[in-house]
């Protein structure tokens, strides 16, 4: 029979839940997948405003002259806010072929090109309606390849209310989170005292990774996860664990 102390410890451990809330990105960098792996639930925060010239619809690939961008054309308004999961992909523009050509140019000689290229292109050719739809399928595909099993959900399913920190806290309470993990850039706007009030632990994700093999030149960090997959293959999952621990905010 379990002692009362052992029972309390076990119940406490069962209730512990780490939740991350991040907008979807187009084939994001390795830190994005480290972030997902760090969570017990990862919420795609796509019921917020689309931002132009951001990571929602573009990313960078390694070339023999540095890096180049790959882009998915989208339809949005600069005068009226467009929500990410309502931002349509512009299929009237030929965008898949330029991505195919650039990937072949950059990675055809990489040791794991054949493992991932066809599957990636097949997803692009599905003609997803929105950039959010495309991003989510690509993120789930990469997670499967990297053996990341964190449940991924959409913020819209929780019907979050409020703005900024209040909206995050509403999503966290509805998802039964006890710990919120955030990107370090959020320091500028997160109201720490509100997390203390709601008794939700706050952590900031650290991003510090060893260099991996690239085909040419000096190592360039922060590229699309495709760069890591094509170069390292099944070993890619060994390069998504930060070498610096996450920062746990101590409430005063």
Describe the model.
The protein has a six-stranded mixed β-sheet with strand order 7-2-1-8-9-10. A two-stranded antiparallel ribbon has the order 3-4. It has a two-stranded antiparallel ribbon with strand order 5-6. The chain has one domain (15-248). A hairpin with a 2-residue loop joins strand 3 (58-63) and strand 4. The mean pLDDT is 93. The protein is 33% helix and 15% strand. It has helices at residues 4-15, 30-37, 96-107, 113-124, 131-145, 165-174, 192-197, 225-232; strands spanning 18-22, 41-44, 58-63, 66-71, 74-75, 88-89, 152-154, 179-182, 201-204, 247-248.
* Overall number of structural domains: 1
Percentage of residues in DSSP E strands: 15-25%
Total number of strands = 10
Please state the average pLDDT score. 93
Strand order of the largest sheet: 7-2-1-8-9-10
Task: Give the fraction of residues assigned to helices.
Answer: 25-40%
Please trace the helix and strand order, writing H or E for each element.
Answer: HEHEEEEEHHHEHEHEHE
Uncertain regions: pLDDT < 50 for 5+ in a row?
Answer: none
Distance between the termini: 38 Å
Shape: globular
Question: Total helix count?
Answer: 8
- What is the radius of gyration computed over CA atoms, rounded to a whole number of angstroms? 20 Å
Largest beta-sheet details: 6 strands, mixed
Classification by helices and strands: alpha/beta
């Amino acid at each position: 029979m379990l002692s009362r102390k052992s029972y309390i410890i076990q119940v406490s451990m069962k209730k512990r839940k780490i939740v991350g809330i991040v907008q979807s990105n187009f084939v994001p960098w390795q830190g994005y997948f480290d972030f997902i792996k760090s969570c017990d639930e990862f919420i795609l925060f796509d019921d917020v405003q689309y931002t132009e010239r951001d990571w929602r619809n573009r990313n960078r690939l390694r070339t023999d002259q540095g890096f180049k961008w790959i882009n998915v054309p989208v339809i949005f308004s600069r005068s009226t806010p467009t929500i990410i999961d309502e931002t349509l992909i512009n299929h009237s523009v030929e965008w898949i072929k330029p991505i195919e050509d650039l990937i072949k140019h950059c990675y055809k000689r990489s040791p794991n090109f054949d493992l991932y290229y066809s599957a990636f292109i097949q997803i692009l050719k599905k003609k997803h309606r929105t950039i959010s739809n495309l991003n989510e399928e690509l993120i789930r595909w990469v997670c499967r390849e990297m053996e990341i099993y964190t449940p991924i959900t959409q913020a819209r399913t929780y019907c979050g209310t409020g703005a900024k920190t209040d909206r995050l806290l509403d999503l966290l309470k509805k998802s039964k989170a006890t710990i919120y993990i955030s990107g370090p850039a959020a320091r500028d706007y997160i109201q720490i005292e509100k997390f203390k009030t709601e008794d939700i632990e706050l952590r900031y994700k650290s991003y510090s990774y060893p260099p991996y093999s690239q085909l040419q030149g000096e190592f360039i960090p922060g590229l699309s996860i495709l760069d890591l997959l094509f170069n390292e293959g099944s070993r890619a999952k060994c390069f998504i664990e930060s070498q610096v621990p996450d920062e746990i905010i101590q409430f005063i």
